[in-house]
Amino acid sequence: MIAVWSLLCLTSLLALLVLWLLRRERLAQAQLRAYRELGQGRPDTVERFERSQYFARIGTWDWEVDTQHLYWSEAIYGMFGFKVGEVVPSYELFCSCVHPEDRERVRAGELHCLRTGDNHDEEYRVIWPDGSIHWLRETGNVVRNGHNATVKMMGVVRDITDEKVSTRQLQRLAHFDPLTGLPNRLMLEQRLSRALEQARLDQTRVALVFVDLNGFKAINDQYGHAIGDRVLSVTAQRLQGVLRSSDTVARIGGDEFVVILEGLSPALDLAEEAGRIGEKIFSQLAPPVEVDDRRHSVGSSLGVAVFPDHGARMDQLLHVADLAMYEAKRSGNNQYRLGQ
């Protein structure tokens, strides 16, 4: 019984193998016919091939490594900012189009491919004749002759400009508030971490200021979110006006902002410095915000924590500043409190 079962299994496996080999043969024949048609220059096939490259934003190239001769398919011309036939492709032309900051890396990748036979895969920028910058991704490998000597490189190049733009947009959304353009909570924590590290090296102080707006909810409820968003945007701009280039202001919630002030002297009196910071922010936010011929006034409550006096870690400073802000809020409008 076992022998019969084994024979059936073996027969089934052989049948599957035969079917797989037949399928591979059909695919190989189809590819061969396509290449022959291209080689014979059938206009319909060539046109379909070139159009597919154009719409896919991908092109083919080959470079005779002992010469300057470079072949570009039609789709590649546009990737370098040229019309088809406007220039004669050459390796020298290619290098002149690659962004100066990327040329050495691209050249090193090509030389590595020529030397080792490893796949060549590089992303780089090109500068168009109009001065605009675009991103390309190039992949390829070497072609050897019968004596195993490298005669050319062949590959494909693809326009990835839109992908790079989308990636930058996603990165910005991940780190910045879309309404105000200020850093969000994630970016705040990263910058605060760097600020504390630098302060330890420089033996300086870092002030962390929580800013909570007073009266904003009433504006939002009475006039709507569009007006409220305008008030928040103006407030963000005004807070940025308080800062030096080394400082940071972030929006971490609806009407909550956080300011990081770096490089403060350890010799400063904490109470006086907190008062100076508070008065500067209050005066910056005091003027009413005018939106559609209507003036809207908001106040603020501030909580101040200082490294290393109120804590050596980021979470300690955030907690102390938050508690101080709520204490200031309980004391009335436009009040500040220094952490304990």
Structure report:
- By secondary structure, the protein is α+β, with helices and mostly antiparallel strands.
- It has two domains: 57-174, PAS domain (Beta-Lactamase, 2-Layer Sandwich), CATH 3.30.450.20; 176-338, 2-Layer Sandwich (Alpha-Beta Plaits), CATH 3.30.70.
- Helices cover 51% and strands 24% of the residues.
- It has helices spanning 2-39, 43-56, 74-79, 91-97, 100-116, 161-175, 185-202, 216-223, 225-240, 270-285, 314-330; strands at residues 58-64, 70-72, 120-127, 133-144, 150-159, 205-214, 248-251, 256-264, 289-291, 294-296, 299-307, 335-338.
- It has a five-stranded antiparallel β-sheet with strand order 2-1-5-4-3, sandwiched between helices. A five-stranded mixed β-sheet has the order 7-8-6-11-12, with helices on both faces. A two-stranded antiparallel sheet has the order 9-10.
- α11 links the parallel β11 and β12.
- α8 (216-223) packs antiparallel against α9 (225-240).
- The longest helix is centred in the first third of the chain and has 38 residues, at 2-39.
Layout of secondary structure:
Elements: H1 2-39, H2 43-56, E1 58-64, E2 70-72, H3 74-79, H4 91-97, H5 100-116, E3 120-127, E4 133-144, E5 150-159, H6 161-175, H7 185-202, E6 205-214, H8 216-223, H9 225-240, E7 248-251, E8 256-264, H10 270-285, E9 289-291, E10 294-296, E11 299-307, H11 314-330, E12 335-338
Parallel strand pairs: 11-12
Antiparallel strand pairs: 1-2, 1-5, 3-4, 4-5, 6-8, 6-11, 7-8, 9-10
Helix pairs in contact: 8-9
